[in-house]
């Protein structure tokens, strides 16, 4: 295969810890494959510029064959000019005493202008992944400021939650992650997220498939044990994994967040070839999720676009959890609306 045209990728918060884990993998070809050169644009605020510049020096020192160029800037219009893929990682963390409204307002001041800059200068095929929290609502804010970009091009990351669920299931069943399919994360990327294994399947070494809950019942010693494990271990452990990482590592997830961002964009651009994953995308009303919210769904990607996996049954307990996560998303949306951010 010949060398393709370079893809321009903008990473905000490039001087931060996710940026440091992410940029080298993009530059090495993990996002689009080794035959696609990348042009990197690193956007930072003044306090993070030096760190981003240091990362740019190291990128040069890696001599990645498909790294076309690296540019560090503090100017959003420049950073998003002609961008094909925008990874919005930099965000305002919740400070001491900060209420949810303060947090949303502070992030509105970041994601509104970045959405506007994307609207002005990004390439026609721009795809946006918001990683910075609160990711779903930040995506909503950015989309609202980019009226000329189709709103479905603004997505938020729940792939890390999805991957965390895969890792926990694989460890519990003592199988490889690749043998597990059709896990779902629904709702908000927050503690209310809904990891769901009702449709999950396990593929054996001989290629045979069976419902993953059946394999869990076997591993845990009975069907009745599965519900308790889901409720008491699986769901809280996946939803609380970010806090667990902070507790153990002393700082928040970085390399795993970067890996999930790579997976999200890779699958979005190159397709999911028959399988599904999870991503927070614009709701079209599927599964009773109010139209216009950015919420996590089971999705597949075809022809470079996410599509929500249709026609799945939703168990009553999963439905109740989804509804409570949607309440949280609606409350965030109503708050940013009342703040004039969307
Ligand atoms: P860091 O604090 O290490 O880095 C953030 C960087 O963003 C800093 O260098 C800062 O200067 C920069 N920044 C702030 N405002 C900016 C702006 N307006 N324009 C450009 N750059 C700006 O945080 P890091 O650990 O890298 O995490 C980044 C974000 O990812 C946080 O909001 C975090 O909550 C979120 N996460 C989201 C995850 C997800 O699954 N969706 C998981 C990992 C992570 O917690």
Which features would summarize this protein structure in a list?
L-2-Hydroxyisocaproate Dehydrogenase, Chain A, domain 2, Rossmann fold, 342 residues, six-stranded parallel β-sheet, 14 strands, globular, binds ligand NAX, alpha/beta
State the helicity in percent bands. 40-55%
β-sheet strand percentage: 15-25%
- As laid out across the biggest beta sheet, the strand order is 3-2-1-4-5-6
What average pLDDT do the residues reach?
A: 96
Which small molecules are bound?
Answer: ligand NAX
Q: Describe the sheet with the most strands.
A: 6 strands, parallel
CATH class of the largest domain: Alpha Beta
Low-confidence spans: pLDDT under 50, at least 5 residues? none
Fold-level CATH name of the largest domain: L-2-Hydroxyisocaproate Dehydrogenase, Chain A, domain 2
| Number of helical regions | 11
What gap, in angstroms, lies between the N and C termini? 44 Å
Q: How would you sum up the global shape?
A: globular
Instruction: Give the SSE order as H and E letters.
Output: EHEHEHEHEHEHEEEEEHHHHEEEH
What is the SS-derived class? alpha/beta
